[in-house]
Write a structure and sequence with these properties.
Elements lengths: L5 H15 L5 E5 L3 H6 L4 E5 L7 H16 L6 E2 L5 E5 L6 H8 L4 E3 L1 E5 L12 H4 L2 E5 L5 E4 L4 E3 L2 E3 L16 E5 L5 H15 L9 H4 L1 H14 L5 H12 L4 E3 L4 E3 L9 E2 L9
Parallel strand pairs: 1-2, 6-11
Antiparallel strand pairs: 3-8, 4-11, 5-8, 6-7, 7-14, 9-10, 10-13, 12-13
C-alpha cells in the first residue's frame, strides 16, 4: 500500500518484478495517482479513497488482511510488504522460490530485518541501489511476518492468533531470507516522506498514527546519529548474532494475541556482502 513515496516504490517494483514477475505484483494506491501506474506499469493497481484518514492503521490492517486472504484463493503463498521494504534471498542458500519450498506448508514466514542507511561516503544512487548502498544494521522491529500460505491476520509486524494457539503457533524464520527496509536509504526522499507523515498526523481526525509520525524528523535524526556511532562488524559475524537472537524464542503476547520477532536492537552495524549486487 502506498501514498507517494515514489523513489521507494520504484525500487520496490523493479526488485520484486525481477524476482517474481511484474504480473504477480499488486499495489494498493491510497488515493488516485497516475504516477503509481507509470512507475509500476506491469503491476495490478487497486485504488482506494483517501478522503477519510481516521483510524488509519486499523483500517489499513483490516483492508490488507482481507485483500491478502482473497489472493490466497489464487496463490499458494502471498507476500506482503510496505513500499519501502524489499525481500532478498541469499543465492548461496537458494532462490526465493527454493527457500519457500524448503520451508514447507507452514502458515507464516518471518524474514530477518535490516535497515539500509545512506552514509556520506556512499556512491551516488544513480549507480544502482545495491552498488551505492552497503551500510546496514539488523533490526528485530523489521524482522516481520511477511508471507502466509493461509488466511491469517498480519498486524504490528507479527501474526494475530487465537489464544489457544498462542503457545504452539509456529514461528519460522528461514536461513538466508531478508527484509531490507529502505526508509533511511535515501535521505532526500526521507525528507518528503517525513513531511507527509507530519502533515497527516496533524490532520485532526481520530485514530491517526501517533508520535512516530508527529515527531518523524526527530526520530530520523536520533536513528541516524545512533547508527553512525555503532561499531562495524563483518557481515558473517553480525548476521550470525542477529539470526541466532531472532530466529528462535519469539514474543508471544497474550494481551495482543500476537506472535512476532522480538523488537531487539543490536549495538553494531555491518556492510552488505557483494551478492546483493545480483539484484537490480
Amino acid at each position: 500500500m502506498v501514498y507517494k513515496d515514489y523513489w521507494a516504490l520504484g525500487v520496490w517494483y523493479r526488485h520484486h518484478a525481477q524476482l517474481l514477475g511484474a504480473d504477480a505484483l499488486y499495489i494498493v494506491a491510497h488515493g488516485a495517482d497516475p504516477e503509481v501506474q507509470r512507475i509500476c506499469p506491469g503491476a495490478s493497481i487497486w485504488t482506494i479513497p483517501r478522503d477519510d484518514l481516521s483510524y488509519f492503521d486499523r483500517k489499513r490492517s483490516e483492508l490488507l488482511n482481507a485483500f491478502q486472504a482473497g489472493l490466497l484463493s489464487s496463490y499458494d503463498w502471498v507476500i506482503r510488504t510496505d513500499a519501502d521494504e524489499l525481500i532478498c534471498a541469499d543465492p548461496a542458500i537458494g532462490s526465493l522460490q527454493q527457500i519457500f519450498a524448503a520451508a514447507g506448508r507452514v502458515p507464516v514466514l518471518t524474514a530477518l530485518g535490516l535497515d539500509l542507511v545512506e552514509q556520506p561516503e556512499d556512491r551516488p544512487l544513480r549507480d544502482g541501489l545495491w552498488k551505492a548502498q552497503k551500510n546496514v544494521s539488523f533490526t528485530g522491529h523489521y524482522s516481520k511476518s511477511f508471507a502466509q500460505s493461509r488466511p491469517l491476520k498480519l498486524t504490528l509486524h507479527g501474526t494475530k492468533v487465537p489464544p489457544r494457539r498462542l503457545a504452539d503457533f509456529p514461528f519460522v524464520m528461514p536461513e538466508g531470507l531478508y527484509l531490507v527496509h529502505l526508509k533511511y536509504a535515501n535521505l532526500d526522499a526521507l525528507e518528503t516522506v517525513n513531511a507527509d507523515r507530519v502533515a497527516m498526523s496533524n490532520a485532526g481526525q481520530k485514530g491517526l498514527p501517533g508520535a512516530g509520525w508527529r515527531e518523524a524528523y526527530a526520530d530520523a535524526a536520533q536513528f541516524l546519529a545512533s547508527f553512525r556511532a555503532k561499531p562495524v562488524l563483518p557481515w558473517h559475524k553480525a548476521r550470525a548474532k542477529a539470526f541466532r537472537a531472532l530466529s528462535n524464542d519469539p514474543a508471544r503476547s497474550e494481551r495482543l494475541g500476537l506472535v512476532k520477532a522480538r523488537a531487539l536492537k543490536f549495538p553494531f552495524r555491518t556492510v552488505l556482502p557483494d551478492w546483493f549486487e545480483t539484484f537490480e
